[in-house]
Design a protein that fits this description.
The complex is a heterodimer.
Chain A (H helix, E strand, L loop, with lengths): L3 H8 L5 H9 L5 E6 L2 H13 L5 E4 L7 H5 L6 H25 L3 E4 L1 E4 L13 H27 L8 H4 L11 E6 L7 H10 L4 E5 L2
Antiparallel strand pairs in A: 1-5, 1-6, 2-5, 3-4
Helix pairs in contact in A: 5-6
Chain B lengths: L3 H4 L6 H25 L5 H30 L6 H12 L1 H16 L12 H5 L2 H4 L7 H32 L2 H29 L12 H26 L9 H33 L2 H4 L8 H23 L1 H5 L1 H23 L5 H6 L3 H10 L10 H24 L10 H6 L4
Classes of the chains: A alpha+beta, B mainly alpha.
């Protein structure tokens, strides 16, 4: 597949043009994949790959392998911090919405002029906290959840419609019972023959060269 | 990922005996002091303290029974090792009916009115609303129900404990299947008995008042007590060198999540739902329960609960790392045990005389009466409250270590044991 669409898809998140030129100079190789037959095999391999200084590598496994993130050196997600601000936005939005629509007589301009009006409901105070809590709670939860899902997808670079690892017919079993470690060509330490020799030393079942 | 649970230090030695002895001394001493300080008369203050202490101990054990059945109903793997200590706490329900006998005797000898106003037949017959409740709130039916509740809990606790311990010896997988088969039935029985017990023993203190949320509220109370207590218990065991490899950081993390979910968020959710509906409708027969709780010293206790039972632990427990540091988690759990006790105190103690409510024309008037000291709100913290609560907690500690000592600290032949030892949180 030599079309430009997949390239843009996979490299969109990568970096400036200079790096792209760099990748091409290392020949038309997207990366090198090593296939292992056991979780323990890929766990040990990931450790060694990380220790030898590679950064642009990933593990493709058919089910979660305990401790693999640590072996790979994957950092803990920043998602909770983003979700906190999503929730806070919901809370403030709900507070503003209710105070404006129930309790104050100010006019605001939101594309058209909107008139604030004071509603007195069953003799309660105009700004009546207990009555506002359910809406505040729901909007906090809603915006937290939406932020959580959308930023989870964004941080994972999903949806991913094409991935070079899935293109290779030799690596079909990664969705079943095989474990594949890929070192990408854009890693500064990547060198076709040296990296292949290094992967060989990890004793994989096979090594596969991946096209973009 | 080693199977240390099979080889680790899972037999309580000296710690078991000394904890039992301390628990027994504190328990019996507290009980004796409560009786002695009161004199033999059996005043209202004594009985309220007794009920408070009983409900605190009961809530922790009810939560444990729920937890055990929940693990079976979901066929959980992660919790297998934690289940045994929970079974030990729940096993206290096998003897706890004994401590309820004095309350039964109180009601049956016609002196129940010091605790439950409905025992006063003149009072019940003088009011239209209360007359309609006589069919439910009378000594005979009330006692039959109490015996059913206590019997159901004792049998369920005995069944789960004995099956689990017997499996240690024979490794029979059919025991697991049997426990799973009974779990849904047990949970339904548990939900019904716990709900009606909370209505009978706490809500009925103020017989006119009702809340359909009350059973669920009590359920969250018992979950708070149990999850806080088991974190403390496991931390004590680990601190004394037991159960290494069985009770890992992952288990503390998960129990911290459950404490956060049930004891903090769900508690606040249910508590607020109950409050908001009553506040919004503003019907005297419903609001009379919240009136004393928003007056005088109870006003500050209510705020302590909102901030200390919800806001503070919410912030402390929401992040991942506080749940993964045992020493920090156990401090939060101890705080939650204290808040749980305050919560039960807040449920049982406040009272406002009906006449005062009927005569009052405004909130300001009630407040000024409280300031002047003419309106009593049941605010009477005494040494009796303390000795009674210490006594019941001491007995629960004694009982728990009695059961812990009898068997291994983790179910060593459970088919899902390896799952519990190896699992990790992400």
């Amino acid at each position: 597949m030599s079309g430009s669409a997949p390239e843009t898809a996979t490299q969109a998140a990568a970096s400036p043009d200079t790096v792209m030129v760099d990748v091409r100079s290392k020949a038309e190789v997207w990366g090198l994949a090593a296939q292992f037959s056991t979780p323990a095999g890929i766990y040990e391999a990931a450790k060694k790959v990380r220790e030898s200084g590679y950064r642009w590598f990933d593990c493709h496994v058919p089910f979660p392998v305990h401790g693999l993130d640590k072996a790979m050196g994957v950092q803990y997600t920043i998602l909770p911090i983003i979700v906190f601000f999503g929730g806070l936005t919901g809370l403030l939005l709900a507070a503003f919405l209710q105070v404006f629509t129930n309790s104050v007589e100010i006019d605001i301009w939101a594309l058209v002029s909107v008139v604030g009006y004071q509603f007195e409901v069953s003799g309660k105070p105009l700004i009546s906290t207990p009555a506002f809590i359910p809406v505040a709670f729901e909007l906090t939860v809603l915006l937290s959840a939406l932020t959580c899902v959308s930023f989870m997808l964004f941080l994972n670079k999903l949806p991913c419609l094409y991935h070079p690892v899935l293109k290779s017919p030799k690596l079909k079993r990664i969705t079943d019972d095989r474990f594949v470690l890929v070192i990408e060509a854009k890693d500064p330490k990547f060198a076709r023959s040296a990296t292949e020799a290094f992967l060989e030393s990890l004793e994989p079942e096979r090594i596969v060269e991946l096209e973009p | 990922m080693t199977h240390e649970a099979q080889s680790g230090n899972l037999r309580l030695g000296g710690l078991g005996s000394s904890a039992m002895a301390i628990g027994a001394i504190v328990g019996l001493g507290g009980l004796a002091a409560t009786i002695g300080l009161d004199g033999v008369g059996g005043s209202a203050g004594f009985w309220k303290s007794y009920l408070l202490a009983y409900m605190i101990a009961l809530a922790i054990c009810q939560g444990a029974l729920f937890f055990v059945m929940l693990q079976h109903i979901t066929k959980s793997g992660w919790s297998v090792t934690v289940r045994r200590p929970a079974e030990a706490i729940a096993s206290n329900l096998q003897w706890m009916w004994l401590l309820f006998v004095p309350i039964l005797v109180l009601v049956w000898t016609g002196k129940g009115a010091v605790l439950f106003e409905w025992c006063n037949t003149d009072y019940m017959h003088g009011d239209h609303v209360l007359e309609g409740k006589i069919g439910y709130l009378n000594p005979t039916f009330w006692s039959i129900r109490a015996i059913v509740y206590l019997g159901v809990w004792a049998l369920l606790a005995k069944f789960y404990r004995s099956q689990s311990v017997a499996q240690d010896a024979d490794g029979d997988i059919r025991r697991t299947l049997r426990m799973q088969w009974w779990a849904p039935i047990g949970i339904i029985l548990y939900a019904l008995t716990q709900t009606f017990a909370s209505i009978d023993w706490i809500m009925a203190i103020q017989p006119k008042w009702f809340s359909t949320m009350f059973g669920v509220y009590w359920f969250t109370v018992s979950c708070t007590g149990f999850f806080a207590a088991i974190i403390v218990l496991l931390a004590v065991l680990r601190g004394c060198g037991y159960g290494r490899g069985s009770f890992t950081v992952e288990h503390f993390h998960d129990l911290g999540k459950l404490l956060f979910a049930f004891g903090v968020v769900f508690w606040a959710y249910i508590g607020f739902s109950q409050y908001m509906l009553i506040w919004y409708a503003n019907i005297p027969i419903e609001t009379e329960w919240f009136v004393p709780r928003q007056l005088g010293p109870w006003f500050w206790v209510s705020w302590l609960l909102i901030l200390g039972h919800f806001a503070l632990p919410f912030v402390l427990l929401i992040t991942r790392w506080t749940k993964r540091f045992r020493n920090i988690l156990v401090l939060i759990a101890l705080w939650m045990v204290a808040m749980f006790i305050v919560d039960v105190y807040w449920l049982i103690m406040p009272m406002v005389p009906e006449a005062a409510l009927a005569e009052a024309t405004s909130w300001d008037q009630l407040q000024s009466e409280v300031t002047a000291g003419t309106l009593t709100l049941g605010w009477n913290p005494s040494i009796l409250n303390l000795t009674a609560v210490l006594g019941s907690l001491g007995l629960v500690v004694c009982g728990t270590f009695f059961f812990l000592r009898q068997a291994s600290l983790a179910p060593t032949s459970d088919p899902r044991l390896s799952e519990a030892v190896a699992f990790e949180n992400f």
